[in-house]
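B., you asked whether I could sanity-check this one before it goes into the benchmark set. Here's the sequence:
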Amino acid sequence: MKQLPQLPPSDEELVRMTLENKSYFGDLVDRYQAKLTRYIARLGVLNNDDQLDVLQDIFLKTYKNLNGFDTSLQFSSWIYRIAHNEAVSWYRRKNVRPEGHLIADSEEIISFLSAKTESADEVFDKTVNANLVNDALQKIDDRYREVIILRFFEHKEYEEISDILKIPVGSVGTLLHRGKKQLATVLNPKTIRI
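And here's what the prediction gave me:
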């Protein structure tokens, strides 16, 4: 009989394993390092050294508080909340405004926005690129930018966004709707209706 390959442990299983044997924490770091680097870069921590500093703070805080992890939450929501807080703390320490940094994922949000328009082909042509979306995201309110980044670039569900930003799920939907509307207006103020 052929043996099935073993699935990797879930985040929550890795947390349990780490609480029993601290050496498993490296597996959590490996699993989240690239994701969190991308997330904090999108929030505006652009310099590689700054990213490493913020990541180190994220993982230190995660390690220190692992015993207090609320198992009713998803681990990914919990660590993204820590990442969010550490990025905000970094902005305060540096006294800078987040500038954001978006790469090729902008095509997904453009497709989503264009699907909501009456004449998508007329509104968006093939030359729209990541720089245009990045510039537009920098022009919308911060509260909308965070929700849009988490939903469309980090692919988080409403409940996870609610946990990460510590806002009600209903507010997530409202902020997303308003954010898409504001983003669409910035991208093309005359023709987009969402």
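One thing to flag: Confidence is low (pLDDT under 50) at residues 97-104, 117-128. Otherwise nothing jumped out at me.
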